[in-house]
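Example 3.
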Amino acid sequence: MLYTSPALETLIERFSSLPTIGRKTAQRLAFFLLKQDESEVRSLAEAIYHLKERVKMCTVCGNLTEEDPCPVCRDTRRDQSMICVVEEPNDMLVLERTNEFKGLYHVLGGALSPLDGVGPEQLKIRELLMRLSEEKGVQEVILALDPNIEGEATTLYLAKLLHPIVPKVTRIARGIPIGSDLEFVDDATLAKALEGRLLV
Amino acid sequence: MRCTDIHITSVRNHHLTEIRGFSPGFNIFIGPNGAGKTTVIETLSVAALTKSFTGATDPVLLSTGASSYNIDARFLSDNAVPLHCRVDYAIGPPAKRSIALNNDKLRRSGDLIGRIPIVALTPDDKIITSGSPEERRRFLSMVLSQASSLYLEDEMELRKALKHRNSLLQDCRQRGISITAARQQLAPWTEVVIERSARLMTRRNIFIEEFRPFLERCYKEVSGGSETPSLTYCPMGFDETVILNDFRPMLEREFERRETEELRRATTLAGAHRDELLLFIDNDREARRFASQGQHKTLLVAMKLAEFQYLFDATGETPILLLDDVFSELDAERAGRLLELISGSAYGQTFITSTTRETFATFFTLRSGEDKMYRVQNGSIYEK
Ligand SMILES: [Zn+2]
C-alpha cells in the first residue's frame, strides 16, 4: 500500500535491494536526498549512471578501467616479468596501496567454487594462459588468492597449469597482521604462520 | 571455569529468566517434564559452544511468538578471569545471529569454542556407544574442537571442501564427462581434502592414545569392577593396527582405488569423514554389538568423564559439567558412584536436571552454602 509518493516508494525499494542496506536505512537515505539541492541529487545520479557507462573491464588483465588497456597494463615502467594473480579488482587496489609490487596483475574474477557453479571456465584462466603464451618475458607468477579453502584449491589448480609454462610460480605467505600482539592472534592464523616459517 | 550468572530472554518457554550467583559446586534443577530445566543448561552450551548440545537450531530455540532471543552469561575462569558471553539471534529476513565475548563481536564461532570448556551428558547421548560411526565422529569432534581451535578450523574446512568436491562429482556424472577431464577438475579439491584429512587423522590418532588411560580409569570408577574397556581408531574404517604418523599415502591410495566408484556414486569416498572409532568392552568385544544395557550406560558415563579429564588436561581449565536427566537412567548403584565421583576435587561446577528430587536425594545431601537447588515450573525458576 502506498502512503506517500510512488517516486519516493520506488527509490526506497531500490535502495533496500542494495547489499547491507535494510528498509530503515533505505528510508533514511531517501528522505535525506529529498532535502538536498537538486544539483547535489543530479550529480549523484550522474555518478551512478557514469559508473555503468564508463567503467569496463581491461581486456588484458581484467582490472576495472575507463580506458582499455588499463593504466597498469599501459605503464611500461612496470616490471613486465612478474604477474600477480588476484581474485577481484578490489584485491588489486589493496596490493597497489602497499606500493611494494611493481609488476603486472591478472584478475580472475573469483575463485573456484563448484557449489556456486564456478569452474575454471567461469574464471579468466584461459585468458591468463593466452597472455602467458603471448608475453614471453614473464619470469614469475605470484598467486595472491584469498586464504580460504576456495582460494587454496584455485591456487593448487593454477599452480599445476602454470608450472610447465612459467619459470617460477609462487604464492603469498600467510602471516600475522603487523602491529598485532602474538597473544591476540587467533590460533589458526598463528599455526599457519608457523607452518610457513622462514630461515633467519 | 564456572558460570556465575545467566540472563535468558525468549528461549523456548523461558520468556525472561535471570539467575545470579550460581554455586561453584552443584546446581540442581528439579521440575516436571517440559518445565524448562533442560533449557537452562542448554543456554549455557549455546553461550559456551555457540550451539546447543541438543542440536536445536535457532528457530527451534526461539520462544513461540518472539522475534529475537538473547542469552547473556558470565563466567569466571579457574584463575578468576571474567568472561562475558552474549548470543543474540533475530529472525529476519535475513536472520541475524551475533556472538560477543567481553563485548567484542566475534567473527567466527571458532574464536569462542574452547574458551569455556563444557562436557554435557544427556539421554540422547546413548547413540555414542550404540549408534552409527557418525555419532562417535561427532564425539571426537566435540572433544577435539574444544581442545584445539586449529582442529576445529581444519574440520570446518574439510566439510566445506567435501561439499565442493561432491557437487563437482555430481556435475561430472550429470554431464557424463570423461574420467580424464573429471580428474583435472577434481585434483585441487582432492588435494585439499587429503591435506586436511591427513592433519585431522594425525590428531585423532594421537588423541585416542591420550584418551585411552582416562577412559580405562573412569570406566573402573563408574563400574566399580575390574572390567577394562578399550577403543581403536580406524582411519577410513581400516582396522589396521599399524602405527601411522603420516596418513597421506593411505589417503592417496584410497582416492586412487575408489576413483571410478566415486564418479558413479557422485560422493567423496575417502577422507577423514569416513573414520570410525571402535569401542570395546571386556575381552575385546565390540560394545555396539555385545554390550549389555548396563555396560552401555557405564561406558557412556565413563566416556564423558574421560572427556572431562582430557579437556582439563588439554586446556588447563576445569570444564563445566552438564548432566541432563542422567540419574533417572542409571541404577541406584551407578548413580551413587557417579555422584560421589563428581563431588570429588577433580570436578568443578556441575549442572544437574532431574524430574524428581528423590532419585538422588538418598545418596546426597546438599553441601550447605556450596550447592544450590532450584525448582523449575513453566519456564520460571525458584531458588530453594
Ligand atoms: Zn589491465
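Chain A has a mean pLDDT of 89. Chain A touches chain B through 20 residues (CB under 8 Å).
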